[in-house]
Amino acid sequence: MNKAYRKAVIAGNWKMNKTPREAAALIEEMKPLVCNAGCDVVLCVPYVDIAAAVETAKGSNIKIGAENVHFKASGAYTGEVSAQMLVESGVEYVVIGHSERRTYFGETDQTVNLRTLAALEAGLTAIVCVGETLEQRELGYTETLLKYQTKMALTNVKPEQLKNVIIAYEPVWAIGTGVTATADQADEGNGYVRAAVAEAYGEAAAKALTVQYGGSMNAGNAAELLAKENVDGGLIGGASLKAPDFAAIVDAASK
Ligand code: PGA
């Protein structure tokens, strides 16, 4: 982290876990544990949990995010949710292009870009996910791929909108596997993302960009990962479902 230049943000990504009642209970448990955070604290929750999450988090320092957003404003898109619907529901952040959506739901670099533009246009902060598979890493494509995914996601994003962009570097092989990237690998991957933003928007913009690491970050390894210059926070899956674990990561980012 380098808090002199950019915000540290710890965001939970609950994925398809927790009913609305369970969401409220978990947030109640988290509130006192993270109330003195020295970083931004976000929980990205399933659509149906948003109302309960926003209500429970009210008056606290926890901000609520969604896990996806459609890129059209409205229309015949059965099952989809627009950016404006999220904003009106009290949502401030949205995860875009998570590798699970890329793998299981046909997400492409182009749709990631469209969702990012729609989210930013509506005033949401976009947490855009990029990351290489193990095969791509072993073939030596990590830098090329991360830069490509980053630039594709940000196509037509205006320089002044970048303040509402967070990029999460999540190596696909580290997500939900218990295999964490080493701190050096995380720093390097995040550095490639920052370099891509520097190429597209200049050094100052790149320096100000929050780049998270995600992939089996937990209470035990967070401090080491967050100690790296380019690791400005985390996108936390499994460990965000347990209040003490999530709070420990927030503590590590508050130093
Ligand atoms: P994990 O998930 O922390 O469970 O590996 C991270 C993510 O998918 O964002």
Automatic annotation (TrEMBL):
Pfam families: TIM. Belongs to the triosephosphate isomerase family. The keyword Cell division does not apply. Its EC number is 5.3.1.1. It catalyses: D-glyceraldehyde 3-phosphate = dihydroxyacetone phosphate. Homodimer. This is Triosephosphate isomerase.
